[in-house]
Design a protein that fits this description.
The complex is a heterodimer of chains A (268) and B (463).
Chain A (H helix, E strand, L loop, with lengths): L1 E10 L2 E7 L1 H6 L5 E5 L7 E4 L2 E3 L4 E7 L3 H8 L2 E2 L1 E6 L10 E7 L3 H13 L3 E8 L8 H4 L5 E6 L6 E2 L2 H10 L5 E5 L2 H14 L2 E5 L15 E4 L2 E4 H4 L2 E3 L5 H8 L3 H11 L1
Parallel strand pairs in A: 9-10, 9-13, 10-11, 11-12, 13-14
Antiparallel strand pairs in A: 1-2, 1-7, 2-6, 3-4, 3-8, 5-6, 14-17, 15-16
Helix pairs in contact in A: 5-6
Chain B lengths: L14 H4 L12 H8 L9 H5 L6 H9 L3 H9 L5 H7 L6 H4 L11 H15 L13 E5 L3 H12 L3 E5 L8 H4 L8 H14 L3 E3 L10 H5 L6 E4 L5 E2 L12 E3 H10 L17 E5 L3 H11 L6 E5 L11 H10 L2 E3 L2 E8 L5 E14 L5 E5 L5 E4 L2 E4 L3 E2 L3 H5 L24 E3 L2 H4 L4 H20 L1
Parallel strand pairs in B: 1-2, 1-4, 2-3, 4-16, 6-14, 7-8, 7-14, 8-9
Antiparallel strand pairs in B: 5-15, 10-11, 11-12, 11-13
The chains are: A alpha/beta (268), B alpha/beta (463).
Bound molecules: flavin-adenine dinucleotide and FE2/S2 (inorganic) cluster.
């Protein structure tokens, strides 16, 4: 059992939990994730560690309630199982002029990496995308570390109206970008990668396939990277966006949509 | 006295009934059957059965105790060499071990040693016989990484010697392959595996689930900050292999580990009551010829709505590595065996779900390095079978996590940990054994390696 120290609703249906997990807090680096099984009988799902506090021995996770497991997690008083920190931590160096692009709850995993990149000396531009103003998260955490902060919402309720790629393109045109990191919905990561490819700007993405164990045992997280099969949990979760087969990822993510819907109905 | 060649047959659930449930297939010997079978033993002066046993259990001695109806003695006799008779009696490939070398095998009716071992093991489980040995702690800490049969055995043996033993397990459940891989109908979880684990808990072994060593804590953390005097690494070889043929990433093409983990560990076999789903459709193809393939095929067959399960194996029946009993059970239940066949590609629907497997026929050529005849493709033999799901059960590899995070730990070119015959790795006081050293093997070998390492660790630490 892992104690939930605090819970906050930070956007509609988006929660931030602070969880007591001493060993994970000590070992965790930017880019690591955990596998969480909220209650006995629920699924195991991967969630990025957004922050950790070695003094308080806690880690923070942010998630959107989308199905039965995240409903369980939102309601839980403590968490049955957490294992981590998993995956390779992000390779951090001073890349020069860095643009980090986050979409929706993808801004959560983006934050710790942006912080680490900034600390390494990079000049940081953050582009945050959301459906509308209400759904925008972590703006206050990213603003102080960003040399420039751009916001794009689907309905124009905050920042520019439209997609994050619209905000990114002018920077690329100005040749003001050395490195891009994009985390968010698959369509967004795909669009960003396609855009930067034509400019030859190195782009990393963090993939979110289905996972069970997170230790390399089941292979459900396999992705196609440059034609090769890779396990996102042990080989990733970050990969070169120009080598990722995003259509394959989208397809594999849809594998249990029917079952998930049914489960959610039973659950609620 | 004339030889008695009436080998007992294990009472089992009727095949057409059991193919619709996950309850144990083999029901176990009654005391009458067990004693009758024990009575067939010739108690050879030079018992060749022992030569066939990887851990050299004194088989005639425990069979004699069964015959004498002294089951406590039978348990003691087996436990000298094997800590988990209830498990090994169920899953050992006896037909290539003790029962193969039993003299009566020449007459086609070896003693049913496996069934008798299980009989004794079940008695030990029922009577909770191991709790007698709760030993005071000597204050020396030993860590075990991985809670499969190898880790469990090593932990139990060290605890009996007085060590404070902590087992670290990456998953949320203990038991390794015994829990996530081998299905309920072959090895009951609560009635058998859990009891063995509970016994260890009673003996004072501490278990920590959700610890992925190499990530949550490093091996070096265990040796330094955490103060363990020695570590036994028994992490198995659970890293699934794929064939690298087109279409393997289509939806509902599973590794056997994913399929069995969903089924067993995450209990997808319970249907809508389970949170973790599994999709099998009507027609399933399983690729491979080992125990894992049999388990996957028979799990699939038991799911509601499944009409046909094909098992596709590239060699002939004779070369299949699975236990004979599993093949027999699978056939009785109606698994469709396609020998000398191999998939070359999977074809998908526009939505990306697998819809067919393209296969070729094979014939057997010259023997390869393993001594088995190498399958060769017959030209122009291609054909397609319609499938809704595919399970790839062609084997596993070493998991890279510990090797990647432990500088100085020697591994071989396949990623398995290198040890000397005592189980000692290239790092002082770090031992390893089971599948992570041998490559995918058997429960009995993994268990044997755990006992062996426990003995060596005790010898070194007691100095
Ligand atoms: C489906 C299937 C059916 C089988 N059927 C049979 C059979 O009928 N008869 C037979 O004799 N053998 C059978 N086998 C083989 C047998 O199960 C294995 O040889 C045996 O389980 C190996 O034991 P082990 O303890 O070495 O490893 P495992 O049982 O694999 O256990 C390893 C454990 O270590 C954990 N682990 C891994 N990495 C870490 C880490 N870094 N930190 C912490 N924990 C970690 C794993 O989660 C796992 O629980 C079968 C195997 C499978 C997959
Ligand atoms: S989640 Fe199972 S192998 Fe990656």
């Amino acid at each position: 059992m892992y104690e939930i120290i605090s819970k906050r609703l930070i956007a509609p249906a988006v929660w931030r939990h602070t969880i007591k997990a001493p060993e994970i807090a000590r070992k965790r680096q930017a880019g690591n994730f955990v596998i969480v099984r909220p209650i006995t009988g629920s699924e195991r799902i991967p969630l990025t560690i957004v922050s950790s506090d070695t003094q308080a021995e806690t880690i923070d996770i942010i998630f959107q309630v989308v199905g039965a497991t995240t409903m369980d997690l939102a309601e839980a008083k403590s968490i049955q199982d957490i294992v981590g920190p998993l995956g390779h931590p992000t390779h951090i160096e001073n890349y020069g002029r860095v643009v980090v692009v986050g979409g929706g709850v993808g801004i959560a995993p983006l934050l710790p990496i942006a912080q680490a990149l900034k600390q390494a000396g990079s000049r940081l531009t953050a582009i945050l995308g959301a459906r509308s103003k209400d759904f925008l998260i972590l703006e206050d955490d990213l603003a102080p570390i960003s040399d420039e902060l751009l916001i794009a919402t689907d309905d124009g309720s905050q920042g520019q109206k439209g997609l994050v790629t619209n905000a990114l393109k002018p920077l690329l045109d100005k040749k003001a970008v050395d490195f891009v990191l994009a985390i968010g919905p698959v369509v967004m990561m795909k669009a960003v990668s396609e855009l930067t490819r034509s400019y030859g700007v190195k782009t990393m993405v963090s993939l979110n396939p289905l996972m069970i164990d997170g230790t390399g045992m089941c292979g459900v997280c396999r992705c196609k990277i440059d034609g090769q099969t890779k396990f996102a949990c042990v080989d990733g979760p970050e990969f070169d966006g120009h080598q990722v087969d995003f259509d394959n990822l989208t397809r594999r993510l849809s594998m249990y949509h029917a079952e998930e819907k049914k489960r959610k109905e039973i659950r609620s | 006295m004339p030889l008695n060649l009436n080998r007992v047959s294990m009472p089992e659930q009727e095949s057409q009934e059991r193919r619709h449930n996950f309850k144990e297939v083999n029901l176990g010997l009654t005391p009458e059957l067990a004693r009758a079978e024990a009575g067939r033993c010739l108690f050879c002066k030079k018992p060749t059965c022992i030569d066939g046993c990887p851990v050299r259990i004194n088989i005639p001695a425990f069979i004699q105790a069964v015959l004498d109806n002294d089951l406590n003695e039978a348990v003691r006799r087996i436990r000298v060499d094997n800590s988990l008779p209830g498990i090994c009696g169920r899953v050992c490939p006896q037909e290539t071990q003790c029962e193969q070398t039993c003299v009566l095998n020449k007459k086609g009716a070896p003693i049913a040693i496996g069934a008798l071992e299980r009989y004794v093991g079940d008695y030990a489980i029922r009577e909770c016989l191991a709790t007698e040995c709760v030993v005071a702690e000597n204050g020396i800490k030993v860590a075990v990484v991985g809670s499969g049969p190898s880790g469990l055995t090593c932990a139990g043996e060290l605890r009996k010697q007085g060590y404070s033993v902590t087992v670290f397990e990456a998953l949320h459940e203990l038991g390794g392959v015994l829990v996530y891989g081998i299905p309920e109908f072959r090895l009951p979880k609560e009635a058998v595996v859990q009891v063995e684990i509970d016994t260890l808990k009673t003996m004072g072994v501490e278990f920590k689930t959700n610890y992925l060593i190499g990530k949550t804590l490093l091996l070096s953390d265990l040796m330094e900050a955490e103060g363990f005097a020695a570590v036994y690494v028994a992490t198995g070889s659970g890293y699934p292999q794929f064939m690298q043929i087109p279409g393997e990433d289509l939806n509902y093409v599973y590794s056997a580990n994913e399929f069995l983990t969903r089924m067993n560990l995450m209990q997808a076999y319970k249907g809508d009551a389970a949170a973790t789903p599994i999709f099998v459709g009507k027609s399933v193809a399983v690729i491979g010829g080992g125990n894992t393939a049999m388990d996957a095929a028979r799990c699939a067959l038991r799911m509601p709505g499944v009409e046909k399960v094909s098992l596709i194996y590239r060699r002939s029946e004779k070369e299949m590595p699975a236990r004979t009993e599993e093949v027999k059970h699978a056939k009785e239940e109606g698994i469709n065996f396609q020998f000398l066949t191999a998939p070359t590609e999977y074809l998908g629907t526009p939505e990306g779900a697998v819809r067919a497997a393209r296969c070729v026929r094979m014939e057997l050529g010259e023997p390869d390095a393993s001594g088995r005849r190498r399958p060769v493709v017959i030209p122009d033999s291609e054909y397609e079978i319609q499938v809704d799901a595919v399970v790839v059960a062609i084997g596993t590899q070493a998991n890279p996590i510990i090797a990647q995070t432990t500088p100085g730990l020697e591994i071989n070119k396949w990623g398995y940990i290198v040890t000397d015959e005592d189980g000692l790795t290239s790092i002082k006081n770090i031992y390893a054994g089971g599948d992570i050293v041998s490559g995918a093997a058997t429960v009995i070998l993994a268990m044997g390696a755990g006992r062996n390492a426990a003995q060596k660790i005790h010898e070194v630490l007691a100095r």
